[in-house]
Amino acid sequence: VPDPALTSPIGLARLAVGLLSGSAGALASTSAISVTGGTLLLSGSAADRLNNAAPVSLGTGSHSAAGLAVSGNVTESVGALSLLSNGVIDMGAGAALLTFANIGTWTGSLHVWNWTGTLAASGGTDRLLFSAGTLSSAQLANVQFYSDSGATPIGSGAAFIGSELVPVPEPGAALTALLLSAAAFRHQRRR
């Protein structure tokens, strides 16, 4: 059960500083979750830590701390994700599958830390899924994936592959791969 100081009378869980750990059913009765500072940590293998319909708002204002963090093999579904300023989702160690029902208000930039998967491909170890909604090209450009806690970027920006948000390669790397493929094709045709 969440700390009563963190839950309003209408079931809104608010976290402004510190760490709130969500284990099985801990926030299952909340109507919404707002993380404006500190970290909401989802851990353990039990499901339904959070209300599946509860929208989640991240707005820590910086990229120096995770707003939403995962520890271990976690599968969780919640309502819409809103980004109210800069925010971080830390996929942690293990396999993380986070499914958001939709995309709410989206301002600022999102950093996804400790992501494991393949550039521009869905179905990796860590997955961010959105059942509905999309982001504009400018918003997708403000999503950055990292292989660690914010120091080593993976690709440049993001894209949707089906309903999954994934990192995309640097434009220069994609062009280089295209040119190398064309050169290999040309070499094969000459034989």
Quick overview of this protein structure:
This protein has 191 residues and is mainly beta.
Strand content: 35-45%
Number of helices: 2
User: How far from one another are the termini?
Assistant: 69 Å
Order of helices and strands: EEEEEEEEEEEEEHEEEEH
Report on this structure.
With 191 residues, the protein is mainly beta. 13% of the residues lie in helices and 35% in strands. The protein has two helices and 17 strands. The strands form three sheets. A seven-stranded mixed beta sheet has the order 2-4-6-9-12-14-15. Mean pLDDT is 82; it is low at 1-10.
Give the helices and strands, then pairings.
Blueprint: E1 12-15, E2 19-22, E3 32-35, E4 39-43, E5 56-58, E6 68-71, E7 74-78, E8 81-83, E9 87-90, E10 96-100, E11 103-106, E12 110-113, E13 127-130, H1 137-141, E14 143-146, E15 153-154, E16 158-161, E17 164-167, H2 171-190
Parallel strand pairs: 1-3, 2-4, 3-5, 4-6, 5-8, 6-9, 7-10, 8-11, 9-12, 10-13, 12-14
Antiparallel strand pairs: 13-17, 14-15, 16-17
Attribute tags:
191 residues, 7-stranded mixed β-sheet, single chain, mainly beta, 13% helix, disordered N terminus, 5-stranded parallel β-sheet, 2 helices
